[in-house]
From TrEMBL:
Naturally occurring in which organism (per UniProt): Methylocystis hirsuta
Chain ranges of the Nitroreductase domain: 276-470
GO MF: oxidoreductase activity
Pfam families for the chain: Nitroreductase, ThcOx
Protein name: SagB/ThcOx family dehydrogenase
Amino acid sequence: MLSETSQPPSPPARLFARLNPGVTLERSATGGVSALFDGRTVEFGTFGADVTERAADFETGVAFDGERDAEMSELVRRLALYGLVEYRLARGPSGPDLIVVEPQMRDYAPRMIEIDEDRPLALSRFAYMRRRGADLVLESPRAMALFRLCDPSVTAMIAHLSEARTVKELRDSADFPGVELLALLLDGQILFTPGPGADKALRAAEGDGDLVLWDFHDLLFHTRSTDGRHANPSGGLYAHADLAAPPPAVRPSWPGPAIDLKTLETAPPSAFATLLRRRHSTRAFDERRPITLAEVARLLDGAARIISREQAPHEDHDEPELEVAPRPYPSGGASYELELYLAVDRCEGLARGFYHYDASRHALVLIETNEHWLTAMLEDAQFAMGAPAVPQVLVTMAARFGRVSWKYSGFAYALVLKHVGVLMQTLYLMAAEMEIGACAIGVGDIDLFAKMTGLAFHVEGSVGQIAIGRGVQSDSTPVAD
Ligand SMILES: Cc1cc2nc3c(=O)[nH]c(=O)nc-3n(C[C@H](O)[C@H](O)[C@H](O)COP(=O)(O)O)c2cc1C
């Protein structure tokens, strides 16, 4: 319940950009600003005297007012792109932190957006608090930043917002921490404005018709188990090598009696079993003999083309009707939510570019996209494979999530990932049969894919990748993942 007592007005809170621990700024006599971190130096360009003089304040926090202070904002933006700054909200340079904003995405800068005091606000159903070390942090898979809670009044106000409330109502609370905080959290997608009469249906009132189909744990899993929407360490970091020995490659045998299956091996392995054993990952591709468009067409035809369109058989007459479009691989509930996108570097007969595979027409459709993003996507794959060059073709599997979550609750995203595995192996086997190289990629940047396609990450998003191309004759590149 909110308290009836009113508080005397406190000074407005402001945002201050502060350098992360371990980062120092240096100024040259000519106005050059560089940052030292992780044993390296990065130069950020030349700035006016006003900015370089204030650079020393970065350790405690530089007042940050985006539009009015263009040159300082530019320096902060450049530092933020390297993940070197966090933003503190406080009632003055020496006041205690109310909340600290840790950007999770490169393009993010916090904004305090205008709030209509009569319009209700509510906590997003995707927001959650947890302990991180000795901090209490507020996060959401929708948010582009993580919020470190530093003051009990902030935590108390967030608890009030499990129901939709207007700023006017919140102001009556004994521990109201200020409208600036609400503005920051609204911009950060931790709060949302449900609109009039939505109290009973907050789920439907948040976001769009695609977001409503997502379960909380699925959206969190999607954003945290891929790159692009968080700043946590990820990859083969051996983070627990000091704590435990590596689990053995082969499980120790159960103690019960064993039936020896080797005695039953009478016939030689079938052609298919031989193909399964011949399949392997190829990471280095032959620059002089790229894969051809005809081979790409055969691969897609064999692995991913739509075979028919039909009504799904349903046992229960109360179930809604659903059209299905079967392809050569199995899919839970015949969902077939996976779409293929091709980032092409070298392919004989096909120009470098980004294409969608229209599995119904068996056609490639060019998608106009930024050349830098195309290069970034191909180079990410090269890095993931530890390969000498970018792949000739990089196939991204993107899920139309709603195809699965419209029907299935609780395990929709897990089902999508199982489908990725099924399709990955299907592509691997087609490639092995055609004697072209393939290598699965463990993690992709979901934000980069969203930028390249213009599709929101929760609508149709990257969930898997596989590199394709003509392998060099002897592919002895070591395992890099
Ligand atoms: C889901 C999945 C993700 C993978 N990710 C990577 C990767 O990011 N980089 C890489 O070089 N290989 C990757 N691989 C390939 C594996 O390293 C490879 O399958 C494994 O070492 C066995 O070798 P083989 O495929 O040649 O039989 C991946 C494989 C799978 C199935």
